[in-house]
Write a structure and sequence with these properties.
By secondary structure, this protein is of the alpha+beta class. It has 5 helices and 7 strands; from the N terminus they run αααβαββββαββ. The strands form 2 sheets. Strands 1-2-3-7-6 form a 5-stranded mixed β-sheet, with helices on one face. The longest helix has about 55 residues, at about 5-55.
Length: about 220
């Protein structure tokens, strides 16, 4: 084997390892964020019970009714999980969007995905995960938190799964040889390549657009 082949394979192996390490770090952060939310809900639940017990001890039934109404309203705002109909899509969307919200990013998402699809779960995870990772990273480069937003839309268009992710951008996206590249280093750029390869694998279509302070990625995957 030629020395150039050995060096090339070594470089590819290092890029794959960096990409996998990056994914693992993100996954750990997302899980920790979910655990943090669960601990917060458990703590709040205990306080709610104690408050209503106190009202009951003073026969403050009206205050109990008002408190329960407030809890019902609060619960509606908490129950904002995406329920697309597809377990894998829901898992990756909810973990990423939960992380985005914890980073002070406004999220607007709607997703409808068939329960059974021909796309491999790992491929769907890579596409959605990388699109949202890039969107989150772009938003975090914006100092003004009020200007950070991510919009996600997924639905069927005839026999294709349509995925659209739009995020606010702090500046013009970088291009190299006519292609958008990541502004966060080599492993992140490898993630963009992974999305492109998966779209190509299924004979799909991807379009990226950068204008009016927002960056949009649109993907069509034939089912």
């Amino acid at each position: 084997m030629k020395i150039i082949d050995i060096l090339f394979r070594g470089a590819i192996d290092r890029r794959i390892a960096a990409y996998q390490n990056d994914l693992m770090t993100k996954h750990v952060t997302e899980v920790e964020n979910i655990y943090k939310q669960m601990r917060g809900w458990r703590h709040d639940y205990h306080n709610h019970i104690q408050t209503m017990k106190a009202y009951r001890s003073f026969n403050e039934n009206k205050k109990i009714d008002n408190y329960l109404n407030s809890l019902e309203t609060d619960l509606t705002s908490v129950d904002s999980l995406i329920k697309s109909g597809n377990v894998m899509a829901d898992a990756i969307l909810n973990s990423k969007l939960s992380l985005a919200k914890s980073r002070k990013i406004t999220v607007n998402a709607k997703a409808v995905v068939p329960k059974e699809i021909t796309i491999a779960e790992i491929d769907l995870c890579v596409v959605i995960g990388n699109l949202l990772d890039n969107a989150i990273e772009a938003c975090l480069r914006i100092g003004d938190e009020s200007k950070r937003f991510i919009r996600v839309y997924m639905d069927m268009k005839r026999n294709d799964l349509y995925i659209s992710v739009t995020n606010s951008s702090g500046g013009k996206a970088q291009k190299q040889n006519g292609r958008y590249i990541s502004g966060k280093g080599e492993s992140h750029g490898f993630g963009l390549m992974r999305v492109d390869k998966i779209v190509d694998k299924y004979g799909g279509y991807i379009k990226r657009n950068d204008e009016d302070g927002a960056f949009t990625s649109e993907v069509m995957l034939p089912l």
